[in-house]
Amino acid sequence: MTQDIRPNLLKATNEDTSGPYFPIYFQDESLEDLTVLGPGIVGGPRGQHIILSGRVFDRHGDLANGVLMEFWQANSKGIYNSPTHAAHSDLDPWFNGYGRLRSASGEYKFRTIMPGASDKRAPNITITLFSDGISRIVTQVFFEGQKANETDPLLQPLDSEDQARLIARHGGRTVDGAEVYLLDIVMAGANETPFFDDFES
Amino acid sequence: MTKFGRQLGIGPTDNTSDQRTPRKPLRLIPNAARESFVPVVPARYATRTHEWDMTRIAPDRPRGDGTPIEVTGTLRNENGTPIRDALIEIWNANHHGRYRHVEDASGLPLDENFFGMGRVVTDENGNYRFWTISPGAYLARPDIGRWRPKHIHLSVSGGSARLITQMYFSNEPNNASDPMALLMGDRFESNIGKPYETLDVDVDEGYRFDIVVGGRNATFFE
What is the predicted ipTM? Predict the structure, then answer.
């Protein structure tokens, strides 16, 4: 079927596991905290600082050590820094919206700004996981207390249990003013986090 | 109601795959949310100019043990459009099958002249090139005697293209038993580097590994 619709496509290279040894050497601190521009640099992106924090678990409830996490989100005005919005007046020059970290233990902490609500969407952050044993899985996290969660087109069709698995709970505020949100991700088994198919969708 | 897409496979004899592969089928993404699932990686990575030559740890140092090889290829999306200025992060085990990674507890020997990590950026036509030492195979499951076939890891990010994959070598005895290769089935062929002669360069073997980034990640914005 697909071939009839798009006959000239090249065959995609297979995705493969990152294995357990994604180099820590490739880490980039500027991708682990999107609120700072770099050592000694004045300024930063607009918006409320938040810390998204939690644990990634496997099927047995053990921490998924060595997991590589990537984050993608809109800026505080709900605008993604993507080619479609290249000329948008609400783009924030100091916010790309892409983050990455590798967690040795399976616990993670990602400092960023609260994304704004995009067209008909509740504020959200897309999370991509790479690790040993899998090639890539993708999900999206929402935030407790956001009215728009009730009408979000991704969240709304899920049953209430799955919805709860994607909504980060508010967990207080740091002394430097960042709102803390907590979300555990379960890769497999009971209480499994819903993951999404970005190839066949 | 949520609609479902692919059910991910579990790599046979791969414990971690069993522990970490979602058991429920992936959910399809409604159109209204589709754009939010296409990350755009900003082009702001730095590489050092000598990192393309992973056969030595610095330009003035001797080569590591083993066979120096060249890997070249073109990065494209499914429509055949070259992807320029993409970062390719590369890592592979040394000649003995050991990674220079703090969590590699295999006990296999390190090589003082091999680092095993490098980064290159694709040129305006999507081409890339790097040199490395041909990696060793290693015993991944001592209990059942399963070896990981020799392979090179590549992580591609550039704009909306994002892919982590591995380049394998043809005619390796351990290819047939590799869990990830088994999951790929017939499609495993596209992850094998194609050998070519390297008569005029300072490496012993050349491998062509053209990469096509598939799915909506690469094509969504075209």
Answer: 0.95
